[in-house]
Amino acid sequence: MDDLAGFLRTRRSRVDPATAGIPTDSRRRVQGLRREEVAHLSGVSVDYYVRLEQGRATQPSEQVLDALARVLGLDETERGHLHRLARQRRRRTKTPGGRVRPELLRVLGLVADAPALIMNHRLDVLAGNRLAGLLYGRPVPGLPGLPGLNTARHIFLEESERGLYADWETCTLDVVGHLRLAAGKYPEDPRLASLIGELAMGSERFRRLWARADVRARAHGRKAYRHPLVGLLELHHENFALPDESGMELLVLSAAPGSPTEDGLRLLAGLGADGGDARFAVTMPPAASSLSS
User: Fold this and answer.
1) In what residue span(s) does the HTH cro/C1-type domain sit (predicted)?
2) Reported pTM
3) Quick one: how far is CA 121 from the chain centroid?
4) What would the pLDDT profile of 162-202 be if each residue is shown by its tens digit?
5) What residues have CB less than 8 Å from 270, skipping those under 6 apart?
6) Which of 122-126, 135-139, 179-183, 215-219 has the least mean pLDDT?
7) At a CB cut-off of 8 Å and minimum separation 6, what does 137 contact?
8) SS (H, E, C) the chain
9) What value does the CA radius of gyration of the chain take, rounded to a whole number of Å?
10) In terms of DSSP bridges, do strands 220-227 and 125-128 run parallel, antiparallel, or are they unpaired?
11) Which of 12, 154, 162, 280 has the fewest CB atoms inside 10 Å of its own CB, making it the most exposed?
């Protein structure tokens, strides 16, 4: 799904030669650095670097990878991705399972005033609290929660810039960057490969962003939703990676105290309480085979 050669090519094309101390003139036709320039600046032979970009060189050393990261101006997330891609041929990473421990569901249930979700590396929602269900509008009579929701599919194939996501374009960048990281961590996950293929077939924007090979770590920041019942909700998200290399994370969306968004969440909770079959509770999803992937 992802490879070291393609990542190096896209990163090289984005480096401004001037920032690397390479003089340019109007006759230069190469976007970014040339292969031989990257090789010279990183201290490796041109032949070896060409073989890296062609996928013919295996097991580059940590020192070579660090030198390439420096020359290509990679940030911390991109550096980690580069090292994972280089290790793929040496060590395969087992794809994590999808079981959510009951203790995690209990913790999720303690979050009462903010939407909270447990998601896996494919962005499948494995469990959600009541407010998360109300935010995404996924009532399921007899089985409350958010079964079947994959936020990547939701953003690219079910929603648009006029839908639930007020910052739709930014959301698409975050999703593609996250899936790129996941593809580097779990290159042998067939369900992840299937999801990426489905998104590429169904969304021109996804295809365009995927070709850029950008990677993004989901940690914290602003998310804005345009809810059909309570209007604009400007929330802050915190992503907590769960232990045991499960590939899961807990996502909590909070509102600033005293803000209109806090009032909006309170109103949304009240509407849900009056809505009968729109009530949500923490739940395990159905069998893994029925989850979106």
Assistant:
1) 28-79
2) 0.78
3) 8
4) 789 999 999 999 999 999 999 988 888 999 999 999 999 99
5) none
6) 135-139
7) 164, 228
8) CCCHHHHHHHHHCCCCHHHHCCCCCCCCCCCCCCHHHHHHHHCCCHHHHHHHHCCCCCCCCHHHHHHHHHHHCCCHHHHHHHHHHHHCCCCCCCCCCCCCCHHHHHHHHHCCCCCEEEECCCCEEEEECHHHHHHHCCCCCCCCCCCCCEHHHHHHHHCCCCCCECCHHHHHHHHHHHHHHHHHHCCCCHHHHHHHHHHHHHCHHHHHHHHCCCCCCCCEEEEEEEECCCEEEEEEEEEEECCCCCCCEEEEEECCCCCHHHHHHHHHHHHHHCCHHHCCCCCCCCCHHHCCC
9) 22
10) unpaired
11) 162
**Tokens 């060590």 sit on residue:** 91
Residue carrying structure tokens 């399972």: 97
The one-letter amino acid code at 226 reads R
C-beta atoms surrounding 11 within 10 Å: 22
